Prior knowledge:
- By secondary structure, the protein is α+β, with helices and mostly antiparallel strands.
- The chain contains 9 helices and 24 strands.
- The strands form 5 sheets. It has an 8-stranded mixed β-sheet with strand order 6-5-9-3-2-15-18-17.
Amino acid sequence: xxxxxxxxxxxxxxxxxxxxxxxxxxxxxxxxxxxxxxxxxxxxxxxxxxxxxxxxxxxxxxxxxxxxxxxxxxxxxxxxxxxxxxxxxxxxxxxxxxxxxxxxxxxxxxxxxxxxxxxxxxxxxxxxxxxxxxxxxxxxxxxxxxxxxxxxxxxxxxxxxxxxxxxxxxxxxxxxxxxxxxxxxxxxxxxxxxxxxxxxxxxxxxxxxxxxxxxxxxxxxxxxxxxxxxxxxxxxxxxxxxxxxxxxxxxxxxxxxxxxxxxxxxxxxxxxxxxxxxxxxxxxxxxxxxxxxxxxxxxxxxxxxxxxxxxxxxxxxxxxxxxxxxxxxxxxxxxxxxxxxxxxxxxxxxxxxxxxxxxxxxxxxxxxxxxxxxxxxxxxxxxxxxxxxxxxxxxxxxxxxxxxxxxxxxxxxxxxxxxxxxxxxxxxxxxxxxxxxxxxxxxxxxxxxxxxxxxxxxxxxxxxxxxxxxxxxxxxxxxxxxxxxxxxxxxxxxxxxxxxxx
Length: 502
């Protein structure tokens, strides 16, 4: 995500030779292939070269049915989550985030019933109802699976972007319904369930990769936009529509309903890209489409291929921040389309890079925000280099230097590993974004261009769909250069050593 304070910053056959006199028997019966309809459907969201990934992991599975009522604006639905205990301890409670109950969302998400494997279960909540724990009927042992089913209702604010998180809001023809469903909390080995209170600094969502199959019932005159791809659509006799979406492996599922926006589309590297814009901003909308296709193309080359069939950009009333990333979708503040400067391009490039840094390679945004925000910020520089605009690449780097230098001058430096909750007094953006970007520049200078390029590719290839921490990143970087980087990691990430500004 880009805050307002930023931007000052994926047949073989065999031939048996004929031998004279050989006796040939009938081939044994072929092994029975078990077809999993859930997985088969998911392939529709994936580019062909990445569809095989679906058979390589046993991800948790969400099945959602949702009814939208924009007059509220409110929604209701049911979520069924098939999850597996991948820890070494029994689960007696299963925790879910209820993000809309955080004050920054300005709305509400209520669980109205809960079952585990068809048995009604009691629950308890924490931190202002932003977490709900469901008590298991009996302990869920390691390696075993269970299906959690919950019904829920939710409401969002309207025209409230000036005071709340604009990605959960109906305004300017965009009903953005981020994080509208109970989202399974991460279980962290050695630590347990992630039941920390949510802090307002940085991105809210911390989640593991899962698969989503989502059916939405909505008024027919609203255009539905979501993560993943639509595989079914029909209209009903009562002027409503029913659409079904599948995601492929994603960290969360984003949903929006649009009215009055114009879609502009193109294709790049086999990806369908759609930009949704206000009718009066169509020229800038075409520009946003060009930026998005260019960014996807250059990042595909630099980081590894974007794995999904679709990508969408929405002009939205965010007001308090410039952009917000979700799997397969980014939201861009509407006023950027009306400014005659580089900010629209920089913001779109930054948010698209998050499809790799957060989307493919996951991290704890509430604990180590620099891992995705720092690399997304440095990706701004890489983007301008790759489109042959070295002057703007230098300008981006200088802006990060200036932001971090000012922070140090007022005694506000902190290790990159500092959680956002501890980065008060205006230190979050200069640390997570500016110092984070400068760390990657220092790493690039230290290991050289060829090793840095190899690091980016191997980082994605090794940790795609997984969650990482800082030591994982520096390990891959060290492997790329065949060198020791412990001092660099210590000085920038673990301590607040007065490092030279690269």
